[in-house]
Each structure stands twice: as C-alpha cells, then as structure tokens.
Fold this sequence. Notes:
Oligomer: single chain
Shape: elongated
Number of helices: 5
Amino acid sequence: xxxxxxxxxxxxxxxxxxxxxxxxxxxxxxxxxxxxxxxxxxxxxxxxxxxxxxxxxxxxxxxxxxxxxxxxxxxxxxxxxxxxxxxxxxxxxxxxxxxxxxxxxxxxxxxxxxxxxxxxxxxxxxxxxxxxxxxxxxxxxxxxxxxxxxxxxx
Length: 154
C-alpha cells in the first residue's frame, strides 16, 4: 500500500513539475535574435571584453549563433519542436556563458580620490573584481547600518 502511495505521489509531482519546467525555460525568439545581434557586433568589433577572447572561441561563438538563428528562423518558441527547443536552449546557454566570461574579464579603470587627500588615483581591475568589490562594500555598509550606536552613559 505504501509503495502505491509513494509511486502515485512521485507521478503526480512529476506531472505538476513538467509544465513549470517548460515555462521556466521558454524564451522570446525576437529578444533572442536581438541579443545575438548585439553579441555578434561586440565580437566583430572586439569590444565588451571580446578583444581578449581567442580567435577560435570567437569563431565557434559565431558558428553557434548562426546555427541558433537558423534553428529559430521566424518561428516563436511554441512553434519549435521539443528537440529544437532543447538545442536552442543549449546554444543560448553556451553563448551567454562565453559572453559573460568575456564581459567579466574586460579591464575597467576609474579615477578615485585617495583617502585624506585631494589627489586622484587611477585604479584598474576586471569588471568581475569591480562588481565583487562593490558588492562587498555594499554588504559592509548594510551590516554597519543594522546596528544602532549606543549612547555612552555611565
């Protein structure tokens, strides 16, 4: 009896999870095409961190974009078959991963004021290091604001 209940529970949970899983992965074909065009322009102009990406990786990215755009064509997500959807999602994930890595590795420089001075100093770091530094500073600021100062009364 317990085995039947367990199997029924697993079957129902799986049936309920499938539509949610598909909806979570659905994409808007027009926005995918627009994003791929933007990435292609960045690759071809060696901007947005793509200047440091090896030529073979850029060539593979452009080839995968061509395959993705040919696969999607002028169709919407709902018009694609399940294997086509899976292939499109795989290509999108790979391209996004390479684009994110390229963007994270680009150098960002800014002029910052030296503490206790009017002098400006140029500080350069990767975009990833800058983002992590900003997040750490934000966390430190937020944790400092949570504690209220206690009055010094004897």
